[in-house]
Design goal:
Order of helices and strands: HEEEHH
Strand order of the largest sheet: 1-2-3
Largest sheet: 3 strands, antiparallel
Number of helices: 3
Helix content: 40-55%
Number of domains: 1
Structural class: alpha+beta
Length: 87
Amino acid sequence: MSWTRADDTRLYADAERLQYHLGADWVVLWGPGSRRFWAFARAGSRPLILSDPTIEGLRQQVRNAGYWQTRSTYAVTHTLQTAQVTQ
């Protein structure tokens, strides 16, 4: 069976939405080869890689990991950095 990126459009969009809500402390991807969602923590004292075949399962793992970063905190940081650059 052949595969194209268009076959997984919804899954890529799910990963993008979760990435948006988690903010800068995480990188979230859909893995078309593994057929799993992946989350890489960019915060904390140790590397952390999580995966799950469902977006809700991955979301729950992130919550359990305790690295939950809200998007609003990132947006404030990003806005301040942008303001400094443009002044």
